[in-house]
């Protein structure tokens, strides 16, 4: 392993994060959400080590018309819509223009939902401790949008967990969540991929496979618990 790069790949990063989050293991109120696509292999390893359910939280930025890099809001899995009223007001965005962007991004979000999750419904996060995972952060804008979207679904607690991020990004996000876990915070950051030996693109197929595997594992664990409880009840 290249000692200048702390992570072999996303699965290795997830295994290390799982150790850092082990205090959440074995609890019925914990679930793990990965930000697709790259956050899902990381989240899978965490969910496996914590015996927690795994799902995706798909977030789509609502880009300001003509300045798409600037977010005027975001939509996310579960029909979540978060808007920035100050940007909307300053930019003079009409309702028709806003509706057009929302419609376009909603279609893309629905396509990704179908691709990744299929017929399965999103996990209910209300009252739960939600561990929100990505493969790394630069500015943290995607994670920030995800946190804002997730808050509308009333989780009990949000834990943001990433393998790598600049120290200033982790400090900023720490004020927005109940717990923030950043394994490595190099002052000279450059880019997320620099810190991985293998940072090849995660495919839609890989995301789907990992979610299917996690779902089957969860069903097996649930069956085992039911059998154990039934035995004890006799």
Describe the model.
- With 234 residues, the protein is α/β, with parallel strands linked by helices.
- The chain has a single domain (10-227), classed as Rossmann fold, CATH 3.40.50.
- It is 44% helix and 20% strand.
- The chain has seven helices and eight strands; from the N terminus they run αβαββββααβαβαβα.
- The protein has a five-stranded parallel β-sheet with strand order 2-1-6-7-8, with helices on both faces.
- Strand 3 (59-64) and strand 4 form a beta hairpin.
- The radius of gyration is 19 Å and the shape is globular.
- The termini are far apart.
Provide a short characterization of the protein structure.
This protein has seven helices and eight strands, in the order αβαββββααβαβαβα.
- Which architecture name does CATH use? 3-Layer(aba) Sandwich
Mean pLDDT over the full residue set: 90
CATH class: Alpha Beta
Which consecutive residue ranges, at least 5 long each, have pLDDT under 50?
none
Which fold name is given in CATH as the topology?
Answer: Rossmann fold
Secondary-structure-based class equals: alpha/beta
Oligomerization state: single chain
Provide the descriptors you would attach to this structure in a database record.
three-stranded antiparallel β-sheet, Rossmann fold, 7 helices, single chain
